[in-house]
Specification:
This protein is an alpha+beta fold and 80 residues long. It is 60% helix and 12% strand. The protein is built from 2 helices and 2 strands; from the N terminus they run αβαβ. The longest helix has 37 residues. The protein is rod-shaped, with a radius of gyration of 26 Å.
Length: 80
């Protein structure tokens, strides 16, 4: 009886350590996520939509559709 109680206490203590560790990691991830979202302000002060295209046809299409309401940036070089 005493041995089974000691095993129960030891198991409960190990489970509590695991749960505490998991809660700590989740809280840490949430804090980092909130801080990253808070510092994600665009560097430009305009109210234009910022679009980034991965290749030229998408860049052209986005700039035609967006017109003067969007700032379009192409991440590929103009060289072939």
């Amino acid at each position: 009886m005493l041995l089974s109680f000691m095993v129960f206490v030891r198991t409960a203590r190990n489970n509590m350590k695991k749960i505490t560790g998991i809660i700590f990691i989740v809280i840490l991830i949430l804090i980092v996520g909130f801080l990253a979202a808070k510092n994600n302000n665009p560097s430009t002060s305009s109210n234009k939509l910022q679009v980034t295209a991965s290749f030229y046809p998408m860049y052209y299409f986005s700039s035609v559709i967006g017109g003067d309401k969007a700032t379009v940036q192409n991440i590929t070089t103009s060289r072939c």
